[in-house]
Amino acid sequence: MSVWIQAQQLQGEALHQMQSLYGQHFPIEVRHYLSQWIEAQLWDSVDLENPQEEFKAKRMLDSLIQELQKKVEHQVGEDGFLLKIKLGHYATQLKNTYDRCPLELVRCIKHILYTEQRLVREATNASSPGGGMLDSMSQKYQQLNQAFEELRLLTQDTDNDLRKLQHSQEYFIIQYQESLHIQAQLGNLSALPPSDRVLREPALLSKRATMEAWLTREANTLQKYRLDLAEKHQKTLQLLRKQQTTILDDELIQWKRRQQLAGNGGPPEGALDVLQSWCEKLAELICQNRQQIRRAEHLRQQLPIPGPVEELLTELNNTITDIISALVTSTFIIEKHPPQVLKTQTKFAATVRLLVGGKLNVHMNPPQVKATIINLLLSISLFLHCSFISLSSLKRIKRSDRRGAESVTEEKFTVLFESQFSVGGNELVFQVKTLSLPVVVIVHGSQDNNATATVLWDNAFAEPGRVPFAIPDKVMWPQLCDALNMKYKAEVQSNRGLSEENLVFLAQKAFSSASTSPEDYRSMTMSWSQFNRESLPGRNFTFWQWFDGVIELMKKHLKLHWNDGAILGFVNKQQAQDMLMSKPNGTFLLRFSDSEIGGITIAWVAENPNKAGERMVWNLMPYTTKDFSIRSLADRISDLNHLLFLYPDRPKDEVFSKYYTPPHSKAVDGYVKPQIRQVVPEFATANPDPSSGNPTYMDHAASPSVSHPHIYGIYPPINDSMLDGDGEFDLEDTMDVARHVEELLRRPIENQWSGQQS
Domain SH2: where (predicted)? Predict the structure, then answer.
């Protein structure tokens, strides 16, 4: 995790200190939008006390300005317009401020980073895992940048050596031509008179001998230069390959893993800016070394000298080609994946990106990208073409034969992206391919929850380098807990995740166990079949279907109450009874229904009307999303006046009143708007409403049919109890009638009472 991400989570005085670091000398917006780039630079490598380091500081300033200008160019739309102006202004401001004193910029940024790291370390405690991660990340970035600096110096060194070799070889060729001229002169002596030949021959012979000795010695020297240069290139390529392996097999793979976990609600995978800058540096260094190797080969062909250099250059050329090929094919990535649950007849989009495209000038002739959705088992494809961004809708799908108990929502597809482009005037032609994360294709919304289960299991438990899309059939329970917690927090949009008690409840449900000890479940495994193929005992739904129902209910209607801590939720009926029986009458709690998907019920403690002096816990028939679309949970709790305290002892109005619907205004044009209220007959009694003068039904006592049958005729006499033996209300028919009445009340009055209007 970057320093900046952690710095943004500071609070109180620490946050104030962090904010005070910024101003006109260095705007906080620059820190925000260039956070990864800033933290990746070797600011500590600049000696602020050495004036000779000013050139290095100037390069860093220029790079900072360039990065800001890149950000400016990428801003689009209305929101990006103002940001483009602001960032452009900051680029000019920083250049004007530090152009003449670039070392001051380095001093400023070093101070900012040091202070932020100190504040984060103090806030998270230096001994915590987070602090260690920060140090490890900074160290890794420093190591990568140091390796790039070493590669740059090595490449510069071999370039200098190559120039020297070229100059020496050119001089050697000139001298060799001179030796040929001397040999020609000796050959012409035979045409001269003997006296002249005797006079000139010794000098020419001596000159030829001297020249041949020099040529022999210089040829050996050139051969040594060539060998030394080849060995330096070997060292450079070894370091290049190591650096590339670190970036592609470590950093890029980790980014892809974070990208996959983000599909389950994990933190964002992070921007690609730093990764792209590393890949572009690699591409630049590889191209420079490749050009040097080709120039060395050209010099060898120009002046062949027997020896091992020819074989070495061939090996170097093959190695550098392999390196650049691996870089190009590995950096063709999917920046934005297609939806992993894909409904037919629905449009979708994806974005692919070549991280080295800028350095290879791919933008000069943008390649076409083809996207094909395939079934990995049969390699059956639908022909679906795309540009870099837009994809058309998936109109139909051909499925493979399913095996055993496998359902259509367990079948995985993938989108295969393919492209081809050339480098260096068609000298190197690359064919690149990449696969999307697994996609489950559905034809109806009712398949969504099971398809989501397939995707969640794959995203959570996929291993790097797997055969697509192989996953373990069983996983450890703590691993599954991490995945469920990540999904729950993301969907409910809450920092309040699943507690250890919540996870124990889920384990009890998943394994049909009564143990309340978390340790009993740590070594247990859960299979895919247990997760979403086999129904829970005594139910017609799976573990995942129940959990997904909770998520849907929470994110649509109850997430504010969950964030307030008002919903315990993961409590079974017996636990609720044990908790409530020690509390005063009217204490209630909210728990998720065991018997209904996406249901939540109210349990409360009150007197048993059939046995004086005895108390019991009552459970209201579960509410579902349909109920809350008619009347909210807070309003329903407000209606039930026998509910007094939210467990353990919080007055209910203190918790829920901020969510109550305000009272309706007075009559308009002579019409009174009807109100919907929830009533539990066994706990309802009439009380005057001082605002209206009309009786309403409060629920501090037993059913009015029992307490005051002679006063109120709205409820007919009830001969049979509405409670079952477990204290559950059997309100299914009653609730159906109530919902029908509520729907009638929501219709325009003139439609219900036409002909009776006054």
Answer: 562-663
